[in-house]
Design a protein that fits this description.
Blueprint (H helix, E strand, L loop, with lengths): L1 H13 L4 H18 L4 H15 L7 H10 L3 H24 L2 H10 L1
Helix pairs in contact: 1-2, 1-3, 2-3, 3-5, 4-5
């Protein structure tokens, strides 16, 4: 439940804030909570990064959405509609890595 609340909060904040300030503001707030619940900080780092990438393609502040709109020479609304299936795919992936930490922790465990 805590992970779901953090994911929802980061998704909402990611639609209105840019990537770097959001990470700098939210990481010190959420890290003690994550540690208190025994969640690996590497897993949380991957989770927050994927969450912020989703925020980069959601309007109104999604910088990657503006870049894609400019490259494709499409209107912002048309581009946002075209991104819909990819956004759904990224949300499913976010939920998958949030609740199956072995996906994100496999490589650090093998290398470390």
């Amino acid at each position: 439940a805590v992970l779901l609340l953090i994911v929802i909060a980061l998704l909402l904040l990611g639609t209105f804030m840019d990537l770097a300030p959001l990470i700098l503001i939210c990481t010190p707030i959420f890290l003690p909570v994550i540690r208190a619940y025994g969640i690996d900080p590497i897993h949380f780092g991957v989770m927050i990064t994927v969450n912020m990438e989703i925020g980069m393609i959601t309007p109104p502040v999604g910088l990657n959405l503006y870049v894609a709109s400019g490259i494709a020479k499409m209107g912002l609304t048309d581009c946002a509609k075209a991104v819909g299936p990819w956004l759904l795919t990224m949300l499913i992936f976010l939920l998958l890595i949030t609740y199956v930490p072995e996906i994100t922790l496999w490589l650090p465990r093998v290398l470390g």
